[in-house]
Task: structure prediction
Amino acid sequence: MPGFLKQVFTLIFLFLTVASFKRETTEKKCPTTYCLSNEEVLFLFHTHDRHSGVLAADTSGHYLIFRYGTSKSVELEFPSTKEESSWQQFTYSHYFRPGGRENCGMELDALAFVHEGKTYVLYNNYFSESRFHPYSNGMHIIDSVNRITVEGKLRHSIRISPKLYLDERIQRSEVLYD
Result:
């Protein structure tokens, strides 16, 4: 009997691994209005009012670009040119405090850029003390007077890719936007 249980658990593990791999690869697909065929999705969120934000990189690493809009039109594309220098126009910050609710554990990821006098902050966060909704993602738009938060839906979103954390072309920041 123990050998049989081991085989059953092995099959369940393999099934779950394949299912999660399939989910991961399908989530990486980008809405066609937001990505070109040579781009890889590094961050994706959808809003409740049918907008989407996509951070994508050329698969050969030549440029990094953010697009925001509806399925019919892209309302914001930054930067406007697809060049190697685009990587330096983004700033990445990360903060991690381990622990559960008793230690207020959290993880904050943010990628910021400045466009037309406003700071746009793409974020995904985790706060352990929030019982029902510990994860959040979306975009903050900050100017000298206002801070607008465009909250993303967690379903079908893609967290900010760890590739950005490791890429030396992106500037680092200690600024925490949350």
About this structure: The longest strand covers residues 147-158. The first helix runs from residue 2 to 27.
